Amino acid sequence: MKKQRIITYTFFLSMLLLAVGCKPKYDTTSPKITDITEAIFASGSYEPDHAYTLTSLFDGYLLSVQTTENALVADKQVLFLLDSKQQSTQVNIAQNNMKYAASNATHNAPQLAQLSAQIEAAKAKMQNDSLTLSRIEKLYAKQSVSQQDAENARVNFINSKSNYIAATENYKQTFSRLQQEWQNSTESYKNIQLSTQYSQLQAIGAGRVYQIFKKQGDLVRKGEQVALLGAANDFVIELEVDEGSIHKIDTGMLALIEFNTFKNITHTAHISKIYPHFNEATQSYKIEAKLDSPVTNIIAGTQLQANIITQTKKQVMVIPHNYMLNNQSVLVLNDKKIDTVKVTTGITSDDIIEITSGLKADVQIVKMK
């Protein structure tokens, strides 16, 4: 009895191992006819519309902060005051330069008075040489002086006349240059005086203060950001899209938005703007979307995820992604024989892909384990 029982157990164990060994090493399924939607994933953030940063245009200490974060501000409202002592010094220097240039540009200025005296001296010599030449020429006509004397008198007159003309031109050019220096110094003074207003950082249009980067007493360098402002209640969704997908996106497309702070709640938005510049730093293109309905309790800067719907097709043939081979083909089961079939694909979604040609609906496709 024991021997028979052992033989029986051995038989059943062998049959079990045989059954396990013959189990197929692949899964099968059939194409399905269903609707499919292609969506492009993008990440981004929720930002105030028309956002901008207030930036200092010169070095100085922050004397006063006259606003707070989340405060509503009016157009041209003064928000920050910077120490303008350095600017005041530059204004005084520019003003002194302007006054000095103005005094030099008057006809009785020392430099012009000296040139004017040179003109008078040159004029007097020219007139004297002219009289001498006239007298010598009369004497030469009477043969009372030599030809050389007459020639010398003529050369002297020509030289003195040239000196007079040169002195006159020198005066005109110097006067014109001093006038130009006066005008330049006046414009420089006006510009520097105008720049003193930059010690007051003002709001550009009505809006809201979203972030302040400096506090009272901080040293603010030229070009440093002091605060972030934007529209009070209008927001945009800023998204980053990779270069392989940007060509599929157009304005007006639907985007499904999920904020990181409120998971599993989907909001609808539509693409409103596509920036035509590739960002080397993020290796992506920037686009904007606007929510179809306003949301509450979402803070500016909140991170979010988006699925941009690029196209939808009704009742098409689809297969699971993991049944596709890398060479645009699938494995097909024909009478327990597995063949490779080339297919043409269409749009894709998260887990399925459209088959436009190459498969029949009743075929069994294979995925190797």
Question: Can you walk me through this structure?
Answer:
This protein is 33% helix and 37% strand. The longest helix has 49 residues. A hairpin with a 4-residue loop joins strand 13 and strand 14. A six-stranded antiparallel β-barrel has the order 2-11-14-13-12-15. A four-stranded antiparallel beta sheet has the order 1-20-16-17, with no helix packed on it. Strands 3-10-8-5 form a four-stranded antiparallel beta sheet, with no helix packed on it. The two termini are 44 Å apart. The protein contains four helices and 20 strands. The chain is an alpha+beta fold. It has four domains: 68 residues, conserved putative lor/sdh protein from methanococcus maripaludis s2 fold; 92 residues, Elongation Factor Tu (Ef-tu), domain 3, CATH 2.40.30.170; 52 residues, OB fold (Dihydrolipoamide Acetyltransferase, E2P) (Beta Barrel), CATH 2.40.50; 111 residues.
